[in-house]
Amino acid sequence: MDRIAGIINLDHEQDVLDELTYFRCGAAVPFAGRYRMIDFAISNMTNARIESVAVFARRKYRSLMDHLEQGKAWDLDRKFGGLFILPPDWNDPTDISRGDLQHFHNNIDFINRTLANYILVSGSQNICNINYQDVLAEHKESGADVTVVYKKVDELYPEHDRAHKLDIDENNRVTAIHNDQHNSNVYMDMYIIDKNVLHDLIDECIAHGCTHFFLDGIKGKLPDININAYEYTGAHALINSIESYYRNSSKLLDPEEQERFFKEDNPIYTKVKNEAPSKYLTTSNVTNTLVANGCIIEGHVEDSILFRGVKVAEGAVVKNSIIMQRCEIDSNAVLENVILDKDCSISEGRTLIGAPEKPYVVPKRKTM
């Protein structure tokens, strides 16, 4: 039986979400009312029956560890395999590896001990609902050394400028990896690689002083290795800026878009928090809004996303905004095109207005 082990590589993901990543890494940023961005990567792996998942984390991962715990929410709290949060080992005086190759080298035991034949490597910034068993089937059929996943986007946005793009021939072979802003074949920062090939490329990259496994070990080896391309056609959001976070979050207010990301047969899991149902008082007026549990709403809310435990007082107005956990909005406050991080308080009568293309962001635990 062919098996896959999963690696979520956060090492090269920069903290690009401004105020939202002051106190956490991007993978731990709340998303869609009750999830974190990393939930999609882990859920896709566990839905594909992957039983061993390692997370390569380097900085600001306290919030991430608090959220993931032992992996119970994803059925990864198990005796054999399970969830491993792996920072690099800084105490090996013989280690000459750099960049994310430190993670691959210093945590090589995870790769060696797994019974998997294939290693799936993914980031956290590409939000999707993908069946990795389909990717594996195509990888095996192609006979390739590596299969990379891409999305042919209908419309290019600014966040796609930073993403790698693929040139693909008629046989689904990757012929070039680059940053052409006009190419719509967006690489989704995920690939399946044969375990033995991964080993060889890690050793070769370290021997040549490389710092980035994908850029140096995969992109840099074209055309020496056989790279196949798998086209993902489902719902996709690339989040690498505040603007892309706000825009893609707002799209989830469309029920059809929700169904594309949150499928009944391929669910997205998250850490469970048992709270009371949300309460709508007689003065409340709520339209086209995602409301998580534990909220108390007395004011006017429209076209917004409220995370757990949000309180909106009577007379307050919230429009086109994302309000994270336990925020409190006092009476007669007005918020429009605003993102409030967790535990913020907006005083009575205060007005905060951003622009749809540039939302007003309030960092965690701020009182205004």
Looking at this protein, list some descriptive labels.
368 residues, alpha/beta, Spore Coat Polysaccharide Biosynthesis Protein SpsA, Chain A, UDP N-Acetylglucosamine Acyltransferase, domain 1, five-stranded parallel sheet, 27% strand, elongated, glucose-1-phosphate adenylyltransferase activity
Write up this protein.
It contains 9 helices and 28 strands. It has helices at 37-47, 62-68, 101-106, 108-113, 132-142, 195-207, 213-218, 242-251, 255-261; strands spanning 4-9, 30-31, 35-36, 52-56, 82-86, 118-122, 126-128, 146-152, 165-168, 174-178, 185-194, 227-231, 236-238, 279-280, 285-287, 290-291, 296-297, 300-302, 305-306, 311-312, 317-319, 322-323, 328-329, 334-336, 338-340, 345-346, 351-353, 360-362. The longest helix is centred in the middle third of the chain and has 13 residues, at 195-207. The model has no long low-confidence stretch (mean pLDDT 95). A 7-stranded mixed sheet has the order 5-4-1-6-11-8-12. Strands 14-17-20-23-26 form a 5-stranded parallel sheet, with no helix packed on it. It has 368 residues and is α/β, with parallel strands linked by helices. It starts with a strand and ends in a 6-residue tail after the last strand. Keywords: Glycogen biosynthesis, Nucleotidyltransferase, Transferase. Belongs to the bacterial/plant glucose-1-phosphate adenylyltransferase family. Residues 283-351 form the Glucose-1-phosphate adenylyltransferase/Bifunctional protein GlmU-like C-terminal hexapeptide domain.
